[in-house]
Amino acid sequence: MGASSSKARGLWPFTSAAGGGVPETTGAEQALVRPRGRGVPPFVFTRRGSMFYDEDGDLAHEFYEETIVTKNGQKRAKLRRVYKNLIPQGIVKLDPPRIHVDFPVILYEL
C-alpha cells in the first residue's frame, strides 16, 4: 500500500478530489492524522446551548426579578436571581463548523 492508497482511505481529512492535499508522507507522519474509530470528521456542527428560556419565552444566560425590600421604613428595590422554571436552550447549530478539540493536528499562524 502506497501513500496514494492511504489518501484514498481518508487518512488526511483536508484533501480534495482535485488533489492539492498533503504532500507524500511516511507512515509515521500519517499516524498523527489518522481518525479514531469509524471515519469521524474533525468538525463539530452542533453544541449544547448555554442559555435558558423563562416562562415568558425570553432567552438569556441569567434571569433576575425585582423585589421590593422595606428597611428602616424605606422601600428599596433589589434584584434576585431566578433559578426555577427555566428551560435549557437545547442543541444549537454552529455556523461555521468548529474543529473538534480532540482532533490531533496543531494549528498555527505564520
UniProtKB/TrEMBL annotation:
One of its GO terms (biological process) is regulation of mitochondrial membrane potential. GO terms for cellular component: mitochondrion. Pfam families: TUSC2. InterPro entries: FUS1. It comes from the Eukaryota. Residues 1-29 are annotated as: Disordered. This is Tumor suppressor candidate 2. The gene is Tusc2.
